[in-house]
From TrEMBL:
Name this polypeptide is given: Adenylate cyclase N-terminal domain-containing protein
Species of the source: Anopheles minimus
InterPro entries tied to this protein: AC_N
Gene Ontology terms: cellular component: plasma membrane
GO biological process terms, semicolon-separated: adenylate cyclase-activating G protein-coupled receptor signaling pathway; cAMP biosynthetic process
Amino acid sequence: MDGTIATTVGINQATGGGVLLPDAVLDKLYQSYALKQKRVAFTCYLIASILFDIWAIAVPQGQSVESIVVTSVFLTINIVLAIVLRFCGRGRFRGVIWEIAPHLAWLLAIKQLFLQLFLKGSVTPRDSLGWAVLLNFLVYVTLPVLLKYTGILLGLGSFATYVNAIIGLAKKENYFWEQQVANVFLLIAATLIGLLCYFLAEAKQRRAFLEAKQGLEVKMLIEEQSAEQERLLLSVLPEHVAVKMRQDLGSTNSEQFKKIYMSRHENVR
């Protein structure tokens, strides 16, 4: 990829067309930039998971001892994952770590959601609904994954896991299916809000990326023109006179334009 960039830049500089990168290269650069920007938001996802674990342990809600033990295990794993990202997320293996961490964190949340419902003695159609709604929202807003394929699959997985778990485990009490319809609407609303936030952030990040690209193009064009001007200057003036002229032109003294650059040469043949 670096060779392609260098070749393209060289061709455009030679033709005076500025800097132009291929669309495929720009797309890869933007995807890398966008994922790095979302790594900060991933911390919010881990914090939300840790707080939910603490709430599930501390607040009495009829949970069994097995459920508390399982939640404690997930709490420990989430804390360890946060520590690993904090101290190893910028090290030698940061690429591999950040590739695995979002999928692992999502998988932990889904497994915990299912196991809490499975281990609970009496499941109602509204159990863990708040966390399921929040999870469907956070998948699109905080996970540093691309929306195409991966993001959509994770979102659909969160949606389907909760709905199927409730249908399979909850008691078929009065207004059961009406509650399921309400659950589905809440999950869809959370998904749509998450997608809206995703696309708004995407537009902002793409605009910032394009502005940075344009700034880089201007900088490279200025450097190219400066090098060309220096070459032309050295082609008509001796080097020591050209150096002196550049120093004077870079000075803040307003009298520099009144100088006459003249040297005396003897025995010139």
